[in-house]
Every structure is written in C-alpha cells, then in structure tokens.
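User: I'm writing a short methods note and want a consistent example. For YihY family inner membrane protein, I'll paste the sequence; you return only the structure tokens, no commentary, since I'll be parsing the reply automatically.
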Amino acid sequence: MSSHNKEQFLRIFLIKSRTTFFILWNKIKSIWDFVADKELSFYAASLSFYTIFAIVPLLLIIFSIFINLPNFQSQIAQIRDLILSNILPTHTEVISQYLDTFMQNSSSLGMMGLGYVLIASVMFFRNYEYIAAKMFNSTPRKFFDSLLMYWTMITLFPVALAFSIYFSGEVQKTLKGTANLNLLFDLIPYILTWAIFFLLFKLSANKPLKLLSLLSASMLTTIIWLLTKWGFVYYVFYNQTYKSVYGSISIFLFLMLWIYISWFVILYGMRFCEGFGTNFGKKLEEKYGISTTEV
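Assistant:
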C-alpha cells in the first residue's frame, strides 16, 4: 500500500471514528437527559417520607393476612425474614422485634388506630400514583380506581408470596439432592424480585407497555437494586463509626436511608422502562412534537 493510500485510509478511519463517537455520545446524552429527571430525588424523598408513616400499617395488614392463611404457618418466619431483609438489609433482628411488638398491640388499635392506618395508606398510595404517572408520562388513575387496585395488590401479594415459597419448598423436598435444581432454587429469590419489579412497573404505568421494555427495565432494576443492597450491607458492616456518633438511633437512620435509596433505584427503573418503550422520548417527540425531558 502506497503512502498516499495509507494517508487516505487513516483519514477515512479518523472521520468514521469521530462520527461514531459523536453519534454514541449524543445517544448516551439523550438517554441521560431522559432518565435523569431533575425532580427525581425530590420524588424519592417524598415517597420515603410517606413510606415511613405507612410501612408499619402496611406490614401489619400483610402479616395479618399471612397469619390467617391456612397451611402456611410453617412458612411465616421465612416469609417475614424475606420481607424484612428487603426493607432493611442490616439489623433485621431488631426490626423484627419491633414488628412483633406492633403485631401484639394491633388488636388494641381501636377506631383511632384504624383511622391512622387508613389515612397513612391512602396518602402513600395517592403520592405514589402521582409520581408513577410522572415517571411514565401517563395519566394518574382516579381516586377509587387507584385505591381498589393497590389494596387488591396488598391483599394478593401475601397470598402469591406465601404460595411461591410453599411450592418451592415442597418441590425442593421432593427433588432433594439434584445439583442443577439446587442451583435453580438458589436463584428463586432473585427471580421473585425480578417478577415483583415487573408487576410493579406494569401496574403503575396505567398504560400499555411493551413486554420487552418491561422485561428489560425490571431486569436492569433488579440487578442495580441487588448490587446496591450488597454495597449498603458492606458499608454498614465495615463502617462502625456511626455507632459512636448516633448510637442506637442509627438503626432508624439506616432504615430511612435504605428506603430512600430503594425508591431512587425504583424510580430510575420506571424511567428506563418508559425510555425503552419510547426510544427515550424520540417516539413521543415525533408524535406530539414535545420534549419529554421537560415533562
């Protein structure tokens, strides 16, 4: 190859490389502009605030349903540990003790207590409905439609979770000793987390979503959430200075911090789900002539 041809080849290569770089950079920038909602951190903080008030009433309802389910009494402890480990990956035993106390006192709530449970739950779900509509660029449900759907979810979630744990336990007993199946059963908690995010995004959107978008976004959210959970546990385990600063109250500070981080990850997952379905706003811009980054 002559020196002239080499120079021409190098020039073409540099031009194509620069063009590819700018195309890739613009694509990454458009994705970031779509996903990185300026108000997302405020939405996560708002949901965390309402979650603090609603988490105990909702857990009381969920565990009350578990207790009254026939043939699932032996799975109660396993189910409780699974739920509490996701609410707060560290200090689960302390949260469990507080929850046991709340459960024992739940029978003496009275009308005022029941009113608090109802108001806290409704406030949380209305706030969640509004923010989910923002994330998916959809229309919020009407009050009673929203109330009916979310209370149905609360009722069916314990039943589905109890059945899945009971079923996997029975199958594992029957097929005990099979190496490949043991590996599969180890993956069940992760698959269950993926399924929960999948259903959460599908029901929260209040509009049709592509199956591939739902699967991709829920998978991505599951991976990020599990990695974040691992990092959170690692930080709490190796960083012991917080005990000398905050003392026993540090448990509740970590609870609030983890709730905020969890909502942050979930809201980003919703934006990715919406982005996968609309090519990160391009389809909406072509159809309506609007910029979705400003919605």
